[in-house]
Amino acid sequence: MTGQFIDALSFTWKSRPQFGDGFFYLDTDFGKIRVFDTKENLPIIINVPDGPNVIEHQIPLIQDLAKDYRVICFEYPGLGFSFPNNKYDYSFSNGSNLLLQVMDSLRLRKVSLLFSCSNGYYAIQAAIQNPERFNHIFLSQTPSIDSIIKWTEKSIPNLLKIPLIGQLTNAILAKKLADVWYKYSLPKNHESKHVYSQTAKTSIANGGCFCLSSLVQGLNKDRKSELNLIGVPTTLVWGSMDFTHRKTDKDSIKKHIKNCEIIEFDGCGHFPELENRKDYVKLIKERTKR
Length: 290
Hints:
Layout: H1 4-12, E1 23-28, E2 31-37, E3 44-47, H2 55-65, E4 70-74, E5 79-80, H3 92-105, E6 111-116, H4 119-129, E7 134-140, H5 145-155, H6 165-185, H7 193-205, E8 209-210, H8 212-221, E9 234-239, E10 261-265, H9 272-275, H10 277-288
Parallel strand pairs: 3-4, 3-6, 6-7, 7-9, 9-10
Antiparallel strand pairs: 1-2, 2-4, 5-8
């Protein structure tokens, strides 16, 4: 049994605020999702934040990339202002199908992806289903499924793993969970740690969601999944100073993508794509313009 229906009930009554230029809501089978789109006629990159990060965390990266790419950033259901409905169970199949729905709705034929941590499995699954639609996949902090399950066992509070109880606990402690997450996922003396935390807590305080419990329970259901991606160039960027992943084997991703290139960013934590934007953007340009 899972308790994600509690999230759906919790957010059904909430209104979705409007944001500035470039933001809109998109209808999907799994609820309305919040999207930001630079809308330029350029090669396309789709980026998603890794909770408790929301679109606002990604804006500096989007601005750097927007000089050369059309950048589309959306929040998966259960994060920010993409409220989940009762069909969304955080499974690899739901996550990949949602990505493909977004691409179809926006009439995107072929894109590159910037996905991180557990979202990476949605990217991999979508590319397995439709490899011809993806130029390159850039992952951050995404190890093998076995490794991410071990990570959740060590890093996620036990109460959050219990259906129903986990969702209720999550709802009460969402801002506290975000605070604790940035304390350990970013390097100890990271100068922007407070900014990361405050941006996430502002989203939650304004009615946004951070459904960590349902995500973890959904991952656990897919722990036996077989993912084997062939034919789509893939690069994993790994932050070496991510305390939460200090015992995670970054090379384990090759269990799912044998030819994945792995590049370590020294001095970065859980968000190397945000913490070292200069080198990350350079990396993307090098690999998408080959």
